[in-house]
Backbone:
């Protein structure tokens, strides 16, 4: 693991905010809105980037892996990275390529910051990860809206076709959602209705601003 020490930041208390929710619920929409407002003052980490590589399996077979089971993600590495960032060390984050169902050759260096947002469908499912969050938010949306959004997003951005999206949804995405994602809603501090919720955005904007100014969560 690549770790580089950055002087001074180790003394700042880091606040880690988890944003969970089902696929297509609006997690990225909500997270990206906060990131756009705060810029470099807030760091965002996507659990999706920690999907396992599986370069040993041909592409044709990689598309049939159950990517909605907790074991499909290298959560150990994310836990280690968050602990390193909290200690003021930078990390080398993997970059996931959804079009190839594997990790990209590139990595991105992430510097420590006072506020870190972690986003992902399964981030409240892992107890070690869950215990690292100071604030837990769950983005809620009806299943029909989530799948419709996913169809458009996966066709436009992830190189998928309709038949593949429907088959994946029925065989793994939907059952795993009810087994592993939906139950974690009860573990959240705040459940928000839609990633485009202006009230929730204003509340979180005020909270993060307060943390950045007063150094507390
Ligand atoms: N409330 C909403 N109304 C309409 N479209 C939305 C809404 N929230 C998100 N979207 C769109 O749905 C797609 C999936 O949203 P995204 O935030 O990427 O979901 P997630 O990160 O939870 O999978 C995106 O194209 C996004 O623009
Ligand atoms: N190779 C992969 C890896 C993951 N997925 C799907 O991504 C979903 C999680 O990401 P969201 O942005 O939608 O929250 C998850 O439901 C996996 O099925 C994939 O399709 N292919």
Residues:
């Amino acid at each position: 693991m690549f770790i580089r020490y950055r002087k001074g930041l180790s003394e700042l208390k880091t606040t880690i905010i988890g944003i969970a929710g089902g696929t297509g619920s609006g997690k990225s929409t909500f997270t990206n809105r906060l990131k756009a407002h705060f810029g470099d003052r807030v760091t965002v980490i996507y659990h999706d980037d920690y999907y396992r590589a599986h370069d040993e399996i041909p592409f044709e077979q990689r598309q049939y892996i159950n990517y909605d089971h907790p074991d499909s993600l290298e959560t150990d590495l994310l836990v280690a990275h968050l602990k390193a960032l909290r200690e003021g060390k930078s990390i080398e984050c993997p970059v996931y390529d959804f079009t190839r169902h594997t990790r990209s050759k590139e990595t991105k260096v992430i510097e420590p910051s006072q506020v870190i947002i972690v986003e992902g469908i399964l981030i409240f499912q892992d107890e070690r990860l869950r215990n690292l969050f100071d604030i837990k938010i769950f983005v809620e949306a009806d299943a029909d809206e989530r799948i419709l959004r996913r169809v458009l997003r996966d066709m436009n951005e992830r190189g998928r076709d309709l038949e593949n999206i429907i088959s994946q949804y029925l065989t793994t995405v939907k059952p795993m959602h009810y087994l592993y994602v939906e139950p974690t809603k009860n573990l959240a501090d705040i459940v928000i209705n839609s990633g485009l919720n202006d009230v929730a955005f204003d509340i979180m904007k005020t909270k993060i601003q307060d943390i950045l100014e007063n150094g507390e969560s």
Summary: The chain has seven helices and eight strands. The pocket of adenosine-5'-diphosphate (ligand 1) is lined by residues 21, 23-29, 149, 153, 194-196 (CB under 6 Å). The chain has one domain: 3-214. Strands lie at 3-5, 15-21, 42-46, 89-97, 102-110, 115-119, 135-140, 190-193.
